[in-house]
Amino acid sequence: MTTTHEIASDLRKLADALEQATDKTVISPKLSFGAGSNREQFLGAVAVMPHPFDKVIPSTSNEYDIVRLEHKMSSLIVETWAFRTAACRIVEPARPAVYDCEPLLSAIEEEALSAASGEAKE
Fold it and tell me: What domain count does the chain have?
């Protein structure tokens, strides 16, 4: 695990190298503090994030479901992220959908369909 002092020292070295470059055009960089499944590291990174930041939670659910906090500067994006299971608590666990549909066929049509499918299997 890295301390904030060590990160700051390395960022100063990076800033010095960038200032010595002569106005090079580069892609917009992103500084990312990924905590994965470690809630304490995520909260530590949140504590040192520049403010204000945006909370980004994907609308779709998958195995890489993350919570990301992002602060956009003029030439740099700083973010921290963690898996949603580390950053959030489950309020309602996933469960199969329950449907309530009006009958599509009349009782007579249902009987005819059942009889026809029974005859087809024989």
Answer: 1
Domain that holds residue 11: 4-97
b/e map of 81-109 (b: 16 or more CB within 10 Å)? bbbbebbeeeeeeeeeeeeeeeeeeeeee
Mind listing the pLDDT tens digit for each residue in 42-51?
A: 999 999 888 8
Q: Does 83 map to a domain?
A: yes
Model confidence, pTM? 0.63
Question: For residue 121, is pLDDT > 60?
Answer: no
* Torsion sign across C-alpha atoms 34, 62, 57, 27: positive
- 40: helix, coil or strand? helix
Phi and psi at 85, nearest 5°, equal -65, -25
